[in-house]
Fold this protein.
Amino acid sequence: MTTSLDFHDILDKKDQLIATAKRCFERGLQTNAGGNLSVCLETREAIVIKPSGVGYNECTRENLQLVMMNGEILPSELPLKPSKDLEFHLEIYRRRADISAIVHCHSPWATGYASAGLEIPCLTVQTVEKIGRMPLIPLNDQLGPQTAEMIGPYFDDPKIRAAVLANHGTIGTGKTLLAAQYLAEIIEETAHIAYVRDAMVAAHGLKTPASPVFGTLKDQKMALSAE
Ligand SMILES: [Zn+2]
């Protein structure tokens, strides 16, 4: 099975993952050894994923893990295991052929917002254009982490590209790791902006102003001309 995998593609995807993980760490979206990110090989037979217990800033070609799409974990050079969130990554890839990369991090503004039980509003034009909606997925019934079975169905809606896990973190997806990382950054930025807006609205006794409906003027013109 392993011999059919393209060695050059594996190295290429490992290097992309290392670069994205560094960017995520340097932006402060993920500290310590939490969070995880993965990318599909071109054939979608297998994924490259961060190992459990290794920080975003410490990912190397040697410690990244390879897992077949059916869940079979391929032997690795070091005694490490794939991230414990492996199952939800595979679940999203199996449901969405248009998603080839996932960045999951515990970024503080977004996780704090979600832990208050609030869905982060898409209140900037960029968020409306790039994300549209980022559903809030609650803890499981026993107040434990969200399972793959809970997360997967949210991605059956082809419009969903990002989600936020209450008391846990964020999920950004994309065709490439950089695209998924951009969404992880937009989610965090949006939560920060929403917090400032909500604090200003409360401090000044204002009513919450309307959020944008359209992300681009082109979408607005198309919608208005269709009326
Ligand atoms: Zn996590």
